[in-house]
Specification:
47% of the residues lie in helices and 5% in strands. α3 links the parallel β1 and β2.
């Protein structure tokens, strides 16, 4: 069942199943509409072949900082998840189901920047699964990370962005194997996420880092990194002796090991790569002198760029909230970061970078530092709102 007709690839898969003797009924409809769900179930109301399982995989995205969200944007995302799952739950009460699988998201477990509506919608799926299981009904909620090759993550080109945060993607064949394994387990909810814990923990910096992670994962030596956290026999995530976040980020190690005259160039490459991830653009398309807003940077991306650079470079003082606007291209940002990292010898280090076109007196500099301290107290959503106003000239 789907809102649109099967795509060419989906139809080919349906035809292949039919060739093997599988009976496939295709119903066009919106799972958020109760009447459409009733019609879909009626189309398969064959006493000899009753419905024995449900897989709810519907969902849409409408990302944006919380302060930029509206209730209509929330309902767009909530409808297929909340209403759709509820209609399937209520209208299959009389059926003897073997399984009831809900495709949830890792966003409802660890959060996802700009996806408050998505996290809320999938939290409902998780709660529904627990409610069904408590009532003695089959239920499994799978908190998926991003899939490769198919789905919304591919359509929105998020692979590079999640990779920058330490998360990988799930190949469809691997995902289906995991569905089968989870179906044979007793779990009511399971998170599936290829993850490099040290990088993810570095990304979730400061007060934003959930304390939950301090209990389930710690950093392991670089030679023993895995794409997932190994599970001990008792089900707990294996702990290592090295405390999370103690090792310096990879880019810092590379900068320290490089000759001083090469460090600025290495840093420029890193800033260019991070900018490409945020903008979802190939690095080859990032002109170091091009204005970032001309490349598609919006206020939400500006916050993400600031946070990623700060986490990757482990800068003690939080980067300015208006970094991407005060230093509006890759070259300017790199020049500013060179002065903050203090990686160049005194003779080669440029004077403290200032936003292009500005001359700041010592007293004005103190006032600016005071303003930056105030901005550091703002949430990312408040910063995003201020940057959005700056972009529109308000």
């Amino acid at each position: 069942m789907g809102r649109s007709n099967p795509s060419a690839a989906a139809q080919a898969a349906i035809d292949a199943l039919a060739a093997q003797g599988v009976r496939v009924t295709v119903v066009q409809g919106d799972v958020a509409n109760a009447a459409d769900v009733t019609r879909a179930l009626a189309a398969h109301a064959d006493p000899a072949r009753p419905v024995r399982g449900v897989i709810h995989a519907a969902g849409v995205l409408d990302d944006g900082a919380l302060t930029q969200q509206t209730w209509s944007r929330f309902t767009t995302v909530l409808a297929p998840k909340v209403l759709g799952a509820w209609h399937l739950h209520t209208q299959t009460q009389a059926l003897a189901l073997d399984f009831f699988i809900l495709y949830s998201s890792i966003a409802s477990l660890i959060g996802s920047r700009g996806q408050t509506n998505h996290a809320a919608a999938n939290s409902f799926l998780d709660a529904l699964a627990h409610m069904r299981r408590a009532a003695g009904q089959p239920a499994l909620s799978i908190n998926w990370g991003a899939w490769s090759e198919v789905g919304a993550a591919v359509a929105n080109d998020v692979a590079a962005r999640v990779a920058a945060e330490g998360m990988g993607t799930i190949a469809p064949a691997e995902g289906m194997q995991l569905v089968e394994a989870l179906l044979h387990s007793e779990r009511v909810q399971a998170g599936v996420l290829p993850v490099e814990w040290p990088r993810l923990l570095r990304h979730l910096v400061g007060e934003n880092q959930p304390s939950f992670f301090a209990e389930v994962a710690t950093q392991r030596p670089a030679a023993r990194r895995h794409t997932h956290a190994p599970v001990a026999p008792n089900g707990a995530v294996e702990a290592q002796a090295v405390a999370a976040g103690n090792a310096p980020p990879d880019i810092i190690q590379r900068l320290l090991q490089a000759p001083p005259q090469r460090r600025a160039a290495l840093l420029l490459e890193h800033v260019r790569a991070i900018t490409g991830r945020v903008l979802a653009l190939p690095v080859a398309r990032i002109d170091d002198e091009a204005p970032l807003n001309a490349l598609g940077l919006d206020s939400l991306m500006a916050v993400e760029l600031r946070n990623l650079l700060g986490a990757e470079l482990a800068i003690k003082r939080r980067l300015p909230a208006t970094l991407a606007f005060d230093y509006p291209n890759v070259a300017a940002i790199t020049g500013y970061l060179v002065t903050q990292l203090d990686l160049l010898p005194p003779a080669a280090a440029p004077e403290a970078a200032q936003p292009p076109g500005n001359t700041v007196s010592p007293s004005a500099g103190r006032d600016m530092n005071s303003m930056l301290d105030s901005l550091e107290d703002l949430s990312d959503e408040e910063v995003e709102r201020l940057l959005a106003q700056k972009m529109t000239g308000d």
